Amino acid sequence: MGLLKVGVPKTWEDSKQNLKYIRQAGVRQLISTYNRVKDLRGDELLWGDEIEYGIFRADHANKKVRLSLRGSEIMTELNRQESMYTSENEVAFVPEYGAWMCEATPARPYTGYTADLLRVERSMRMRRRRMLTVLDDDEMAPTVSTFPMLGAQGDDGSVPPTKVGGPKTMSDYISDDIINPHPRFGTLTANIRQRRGSKVNIRVPLFRDINTPEYADFAPKPGVADGCCGSDSQQLWRYGKGDYCAEMYGNNFVMVGCSKSSLDEEFDDHNQVNELQKWLVDVQCPGCDGLFYRRVPGEIVADADWPRNGDIVVGYELDRQPGYIRLQNGYYLPIYSDDGKIPFLKKVSARAATSNTESKRMGSNTPLFRSGDPAENKEALSTLLDEEVEVETHVNGAPKAVAENPETPAVNGAVQPSAEPTTASDNLRAAIHMDAMAFGMGCCCLQVTFQATDMDESRFMYDQLAVMAPILLALTAATPILRGRLADTDARWGIISESVDCRTPAERGRNDPNAPYPELNAEGRRRIYKSRYDSISTYIYQGAGVPDASIMSSVPSKLSDRLLNRYNDIIVPFDEDVFKQCREAGIDPALSQHIAHLFIRDPLVVFNGAVEEVNDEKQTEHFESIQSTNWQTVRWKPPPPRNDPNDPHIGWRTEFRSMEIQLTDFENAAFTVFIVLLTRVILAFDLNLYIPMSRVDANMQRAHSRNAAHRGKFFFRRHMAPLEVGDIGYGVKYVSMFARGANGNGGASSTNSSSSNLQQLDQDTGGASIHRLTAPYATGSEEENSFEEMTMAEIMSGKGDYFPGLIPLIFAYLDYIHCDKTTLSRLSTYLEFIEKRASGELVTPATWMRNFVLSHPKYNRDSVISDEIAYDLMIACKEIGEGKRHVPEILGDVVIEPITPEGAYDVKLGSRRAHNEQVLDLLRRYTNRKAFGCNLTESLASSTCE
To answer: What is the pLDDT of residues 444-457, one digit of tens each?
Structure first.
């Protein structure tokens, strides 16, 4: 849940005077940490998982389940037992947001040996078993993502009862008293609401059944029954982008989108584009061939690689610096001359290509990635130099041509729709409304953290895992019920995102009569496109550090001042002062942008006596106050300071955060092991998963869709390894390295380096392969850097002869490391289970729960979950997790061995003297056994007893 501290937090009003100091001190602390450990290398793989539990109390007589607010009490008792009954602590139990919640992690990390992969499920079962030892007879702790009745039971939703509302949440549905009593949690809740200027506003599409009253006035649903907008495409819940809809229709409705068009996902319900745009360099003055870059607006960079006329550059207009764009490579360009008379740049279509025939230069273009749409791929690309540029956008699901020129009427940079939707619109849905942080942070999840060998590897793995985050979110989906209603989504992520959205109206792009806010970051007026709980907005691997350009002739040298990752194609709001401070401290542009992006946020909890008193050289408290409240799909974690010689050594880490908690320890272990093995495959096989960041965001939206794991399609890279032959446009077919294996030609390629050559290259480049170092640059052809839509089965099991699938790659890796048969047998069970879920042979927990409700005899086809239905569902989830109920739809032929409290702790072979009477009492238990069937005295007098 983030940084926990003992102390007295300040009120939000009192905290405001400290916000600027903490932000500045946080940057100083990060820079100090960076300089101290930037050269740390050679750490071994260590990793661990985190599982969150909810604790509930069942009223069996009335068939009702409520929250049990004993989380802190149970955690304290579990930690007491851990210290008493184990030789060394095996599990760490820590508090979570809800007063009914508790988190459990292994006390010691797993290591980089295959044997530890088998420890995971045993550890998870042990944690569940120990949890059972402290529960009352009517309590249970199933591993469910969220309590289905949270906010639906009024004052009778917890034990003890709590009154709805309170000064922290001001909620209409839940009580302040269900929040963990630790002062951080309540303060965090109140401060998010106060910074935002209103209660959080969570609106999730409501599932439409035949008797759902909220849909009574809606027109009959067109097209495919389970599709959207009259098609079989995925319905998209654009979480975090619904202010316009709320203003128009109130809190009981939400606008959705459709995956039928790749363009549709680029817009929210107010058509606000948040992707980078293409600009044509066309300096219209005699003798002018192009433009010099600007390091900052007004400061020219003396760089020979400046964009020429005819080049297409990629960037976005600056809100706070009119007349300039910030480029994808981190530099700036003016849109027109200082006097405004001579235009320099012209916005063009996303399909526009450069007319400059010179070689491609870093930063002047992005790869023209394959979109997956055959019509788009066949469409001729033109430069569109002097034409009026039209792009296709969507208003309420219908395409509309919008001229991208300065005369286009817009508000906040967004083109306005020509007509408002009606309640019969294909895009309007009834919504499940929630208004408090508890609805999001009350969700349970599964997280995994990895230690990397060095900073470079941790950053590369951060980028690669960011691509996997929506894939694993969909594959583990487990959240189809919210506030007692069936949702038309399956995953929790967007709920949490909206539950902690502390952005001011101005930061959300809305009209804000109360702005500016002098104490807030950028006065609370900087446009921020995402909640602080969301998918990442920028890749952080620079790919720099190439000591000799001759090693890599395709990559220009002297690029240390540029952002080189061409896959960063969305706007990244960042604090320019922080960026400058990091660059001056020697931090490369990619990481500087990441830090500067984190620090657009304000700290949310400030403790008395812990502001200027914190030592910036020895502590990282202020950095962590920002870092730990940027809850993104992956988190990059620098080594913490060691202030005591006995503190353990901890290296550079990457945390994977998107997965939903599963009903059984088998499932949780399977996905944990899968993501661990995938990181090894990426490194050992030198793979590259990069796709444009906009497509990662699109995948996050798709991952929430109902049954996305089976029915959905996701953008994924076509070629994870470099193509071996071919040259675009000359009739030579591109050949994937994997195609040789698929076609039975597995011999060595002439392009492959020998083992000794690979070792030499790795030494020359600081341990990283050339392929990894060049991955962010998108060198090579368009085909090599292309992506397409794939089903989950294709991503996991393969597609054609060019994409082998992640699971076959993992099996190949296990062969490569000579995994032993015993370990391989269990790992095969995990991987085959995931493969079956990806194919739809097995269902996600979300699908199973939805089907459970739909088939319940008391369900009235109205999308309402009654107390009795919720009771039966929670009992079923408990029994599945404890191995007392087998559900083949989820597990197939995998049988869970029953879990009971017995054997939760090891028994010590003690030697404390027992009293005689106690010995005799114990002995009497065995006198009736066959061996003691005769008189005990007689048996002692004879050698046998017949």
So the answer is: 999 999 999 999 99
